Amino acid sequence: MTFLERIKRVLLLDQGVYREVRDDKAALLQGVAIVLAAGFLGAVGSIIASYIPNDFINEIFGPLLGLFDLILLPLVFLICLPITTLIAHIPAKLLGGKSSYMGFLRSIAFTDAPGIFSVIPVIGAIIATIWSFICYILAIRSAHELSWGKTAAVVIISIVLLVILVVLLAILVGILYYMLETVSI
C-alpha cells in the first residue's frame, strides 16, 4: 500500500488502515511526515488567515502568526504525538487493548492526515480538528481491537487526563512566571 493510498483511506475513514500501519514498522516515517505536514499546513493556514480583512481574526490569531510558526507548529505537533499516544495507550491497554505502544503511535500519527485541510483559513482548521478527532477514535478502536464501549471509555479517560495535564502545565507556567516577576535584580 502506497503512502498516498493510506492517506486516502484515512480520509475516507477506513478503519483497516490503522491496523495495517500498526503492524508496519516502516509506516512510522510516513506517520511522522503526516504529523509534520499537518503542522506546517496549519501554520500556512494561520498566515493566510492573517491577511483576511477581519479585525476579530487578526486580534485572535495575529500574535501567533509568522514564519516562526512554520517551524514551531510542526515541532509542537511532533512533540505532542508521543504524549497524546501514551495518554490514550495506557487506558486502552488497561481495558484489554492489543496494540504495542509503537504500533499505536504509528496508528495515531496517521490520524493527523485531515490536517491537510487546515491550510484553508479558519474553517479548514475546524474541519481538520473534527475529522482528526473522528480518525483518532477509529484508530483507538482499530489498533487496539476494542469494542465501541471500551473505545468510548478510552476517549473519555484520555480527554480527562489531557485536561489535567494542561491544567498542571498552566499552573507550573504561572508559578514560574510569578517567581520570575518577584525576583529582584
How would you characterize the overall build of this protein?
With 185 residues, the protein is an all-alpha fold. The protein has one domain (3-182). It has helices at residues 3-11, 16-23, 27-49, 55-61, 67-94, 101-110, 123-144, 148-182. It is globular.
Main traits of this protein?
185 residues; single chain; mainly alpha
Short recap of the structure:
With 185 residues, the chain is an all-alpha fold. The protein has eight helices and no strands.
**Radius of gyration from the alpha-carbon trace, in angstroms:** 18 Å
Share of β-strand residues: under 5%
Structural class: mainly alpha
How many helices? The count is 8
List the helices and strands and how they pair.
Blueprint: H1 3-11, H2 16-23, H3 27-49, H4 55-61, H5 67-94, H6 101-110, H7 123-144, H8 148-182
Helix pairs in contact: 2-6, 2-7, 3-5, 3-6, 5-6, 5-8, 6-7, 7-8
